[in-house]
Amino acid sequence: MGQYEDKTIPSLKFSASDAKAIYTWLVDPFGGGVPKDRALLMTNEQARGTPMKVRLRDVLDQAGPEDELFLFFTGHGVPRIKEGGAMDDGMLLPYDADNRSTGALEESGVKLNDLKGWVNRSKAKTVFLALDACFSGTGEHSFSRLEGGKGFVVEEDRSILKSIASAPGRALLASSSAKQESFEDKRWGGGLFASFLLKALQGEADTNEDGILTVAEVASFLGKKVPSEARKARGKDQNPELLGEGGFELTYNPRLVALAVPAIAEGKLKKALASGAITFDQATAASQEIKGGKYSHVLRQFLVGKSDAKNFGVNYKPEEIEK
């Protein structure tokens, strides 16, 4: 959510493009592999409160016991504070969020307690939620004064977020810890959390190189990368936090799947050939390697993403491969 109808709510430069980048990975056959008719992207004007609530509820309600759900939100988060200063609910702000009063924000936003109810009653095998928003700060419903900040006010009680991911097969990855903000910056080309989440999903989090990315591996990767970048670029703390179960599989490492699934490897070759990066003879020789199940070093580097198609075309010399 980058733009808001109510201009008293600060806009975010990169939230919409971050959401599109995650969606693009999700539906990419070499990425998340989700069919487009099973994925949904809602940004800015498309993401009004009522449609957002209805779609979220329906997706979670209609999921079956073999379904695995991936939910990503980027935008402003707002806490609801009860007497005594504790947080008893929070809202994810849609495009048409009403900032005239706390009550208006509650009515127009997506309440975390509602989200908790939908997640808890869902029959889905797994539900993974990545929230690039925060619920911390210092005033009744005034937003961050820091450019690129996605957060808000008050001492933060994590019990609401924890309750969303309390059941087996449920995980919530928050972009920051209590009392911290979540940042975006042109130096990262987007939100700090979203930028490294995408890198993680693209295979960089698969540190043991078993071809499988678990929630815990993704969280560990972000836990190392995001804080150091936040301190270096903004001089502030931002520590992503995993709530709920981290052991279930989230996706496959596309860099290694290309070695295990010949059709995927062949698909990468076809793209390289169509782009003009490699010749027909190179494509033919590489295809023979794939069919034989033995990969030369240069081909392997290309298939696992450590070199691009252009470099592969320059360095791949079939006549030098030992037969």
Describe it.
The protein is an alpha+beta fold and 323 residues long. The protein has two domains: 15-252, Rossmann fold (3-Layer(aba) Sandwich); 261-320, no CATH class. The protein has helices at 15-27, 49-62, 102-108, 112-121, 159-164, 192-204, 215-234, 254-260, 262-275, 280-292, 297-303, 309-315, and strands at 68-74, 77-81, 87-92, 110-111, 126-132, 170-174, 184-185, 190-191, 212-214, 241-244, 249-252. A four-stranded mixed β-sheet has the order 1-5-6-10. A three-stranded antiparallel β-sheet has the order 2-3-4. A hairpin with a 5-residue loop joins strand 2 (77-81) and strand 3 (87-92). Helix 1 (15-27) packs parallel to helix 6.
Quick rundown:
The chain is α+β, with helices and mostly antiparallel strands.
Key phrases:
single chain; 323 residues; alpha+beta; Rossmann fold; 2 domains; four-stranded mixed sheet; three-stranded antiparallel sheet; 12 helices; 11 strands; elongated
Could you tell me how far the N terminus lies from the C terminus, measured between alpha carbons in angstroms?
54 Å
Number of DSSP helices?
A: 12
Radius of gyration: 22 Å
Instruction: Output the strand order for the largest sheet.
Output: 1-5-6-10
The first-level CATH class name of the largest domain = Alpha Beta
Share in helix? 40-55%
Query: Could you list the spans in which at least 5 consecutive residues all have pLDDT below 50?
Result: 136-149
Structural category is: alpha+beta
